[in-house]
Amino acid sequence: MVLTAVAFAAPLAACTTASGHTVPVASTSNQLQGNGYGAPAGLQQFYTQSVSLSSCGGGFQCGTIQVPLDYSNPTGTSISLAIVRKPATDLAHRIGSLLVNPGGPGGSGIDYARSPDVVSAAVAARFDIVGFDPRGVGQSTAVHCLSDPQMDTFLNTPPDPNSLAERTDVIDQSKSFAAECAAKTSANLLPFVGTINATRDMDILRAVLGDKDLYYLGKSYGTYLGAVYAEEFPTHVGHLVLDGAIDPSLTAGQLNLAQAKAFDVALNQFAKDCATRSDCPLGSDPAAGIAKLKAWVDGLGAAPIAGDATRKLTEAQAMTGIAVAMYDQTWWGDLRTALTRAFTGDGSALLTMADVYNNRVSGHYQGNETEANFAVNCVDHPDEAISPQQIEQDLPEYEQAAPFFGEMVVWSSLPCAYWPARPDTTPHKIAAKGAPPILVVGTTRDPATPYTWAQGLAAQLQSGRLLTMNGDGHTAYLRGSTCIDTAVDAYLIQGTLPAPGTVCSQGS
C-alpha cells in the first residue's frame, strides 16, 4: 500500500497521565501523523510518516505503516506493517494508545485486537487499542512457505520418530519446510524477522500513533517482544504488562525442556481433575490414566483412526489436540468428550481441537503463524539449529523430564537446523536500565510459559514487579481472576503497581 502524504496535520490537545507523561488526546480523524519523537539518526522519515486509516468494521480503523527491512540500511527496501485501531471509548479521559500482542511468535495482533476480551472495559475506555501484525506475520510483509496440502503433510509428521523410516520422514520434511520458506518468502525477509527488528518497528509505530511513551500488553512471546523493546528503548517505556513471561536469558534447549515439563505437569493436572468426574475416559487413577493415554496415542502412529470426511486422526494431530486443551482449563471438558469419542474410534472432535490450534478452517490455514513461528525462532535462538544426531542424544533427558510431550517438543525444532537465515542474537539477561516500572505476570501451572520464566524475567528487569496467579492455563489477565484483572488495570491506567509478592487465585 502506498501511503498518502498530507500537507497539514491538525494540532492535538494533550493530557497528563498518572505517571506524569504528556500524550496527545485522540482525534476523530482517520489520519495519523508521526511525531518524530525519539527518532534515531537516519530514520526520521519513518518516525514522521503520515498514515491514512479506513473504517474496517466493528468501530475499528485499519491502515499500514512503512518500516525499513534492514535498519542498518534505512534508505534501502521498506516493508509494510498492518495495524488496526479502536479509539478509546472515553475520549475526554484518554491516556494514549495501548499496543497489544498475543504471542507466538507469529500470532496476529490484528486478530487479537479485534477479539472482544483482549482488555477490560475500563482499559478500553482510556486507551486506543492498537493491534499490529509484526514483520513476517499475517497481513504485514509476511513469511510464506507451504501450500495448504503441504502444511497438512508437515503437521502430520511423526512427533516421536522411532524407526529409521520415520526419522527420515521428519528430516526430509524439516529440510523441505526450510527450503520452501526460502523460495517463497520475498524481499530477503527471512534474515530480518527477528525480535530485535520487530521492537524497532514498534517504536516507529509508537511515534506514528503520536505517543511519547509506549503502553503495551504482551502475552507469551509478546513478553519477550516487550522486554527487548524496554532494553532497546528504556526512555520510551510507559506501562508494559508482560503476561505469561519468557526468560530471555535461557537458551533454546533450556526453554524447550522447561516447556515440555510444564505441558506434562498440565496434563497431570487434567488427569487429576478428570479422575474426580463421572465422564472421565481415563479412569479414577490419574497415573494409570496418563499411561493409558500415552499407549493409545502411540498406537495411532501405526493405525490412525477416523477423523473428518477427508482425514484420519494421526498421532501428531492427537498430540496437538491434547496440547491445546492445556492452554485453558475451560477446555478440559471438551478434551474429556473428545477422548471418550476417540477411544471408540471417532477422532473427529480431537482433530477439530488440533485444527483450532493450527487455525485450519475448511481445509485452509487462516494465517501463517506456523511459518512465522519458525522464521522468528530460528533467528532469535542460535542453539535452536541442532542436528538430528544432537536431538537423539538429548532424547533421554526429555523423555525422563516429560514422558508424554518430551519427544514431540525436542523434535519440533529440527527445521531450524536447515534454516536459510543466520541467528541475529544470543540469550542474555535483560535489565532495561532506566525504564520505569514494568509489570510481569506469571501463572504457577502455565504449560506454555512456565512460572519460573516469569520469576526470572521479573528478577532481571531493573524495574520489574512480579504478579502471580496461582492456577492453571496459559497467561493470567482476563482469565478468571478479578484480583489479577484489577491489578493489571490499575497499573495500565494509573501506574499503580501491586504490592511485592502479590499472589492471586484463579476464580477470585
Describe the fold and architecture:
The chain is of the alpha/beta class. It folds into two domains: 16-143 and 185-249 and 428-508, Alpha/Beta hydrolase fold, catalytic domain (Rossmann fold, 3-Layer(aba) Sandwich); 145-180 and 254-427, no CATH class. Helices cover 39% and strands 17% of the residues. The protein has 17 helices and 18 strands. Helix 8 (252-275) packs across helix 9 (286-299), helix 10 packs across helix 12 and helix 11 packs across helix 12. The longest helix has 24 residues, at 252-275. The model is unreliable at 1-28 (pLDDT under 50).
In short:
The chain has helices spanning 44-47, 109-114, 121-126, 148-155, 164-184, 195-208, 221-232, 252-275, 286-299, 315-325, 332-342, 348-358, 369-380, 388-401, 406-411, 451-460, 482-494, and strands spanning 14-16, 22-24, 31-33, 50-52, 54-55, 61-68, 78-86, 96-101, 127-132, 214-219, 237-243, 305-306, 312-313, 360-361, 364-365, 438-445, 464-472, 503-505.
Count of strand segments: 18
Residue share in helices?
A: 25-40%
Question: If you average the pLDDT, what whole number results?
Answer: 93
Q: What is the rounded Rg?
A: 23 Å
- Give the class from helix and strand content and strand pairing: alpha/beta
Return the CATH architecture of the largest domain. Answer: 3-Layer(aba) Sandwich
Low-confidence stretches: 1-28
Q: Return the CATH topology of the largest domain.
A: Rossmann fold
User: What is the 3D form?
Assistant: globular
> In what range is the share of β-strand residues?
15-25%
Can you say what the CATH homologous superfamily of the largest domain is?
Alpha/Beta hydrolase fold, catalytic domain
Largest sheet: 10 strands, mixed
Number of domains: 2
Strand order of the largest sheet: 5-6-7-9-8-10-11-16-17-18
CATH class of the largest domain: Alpha Beta
Distance between the termini: 47 Å
Q: Quaternary status of these chains?
A: single chain
How many DSSP helices?
17
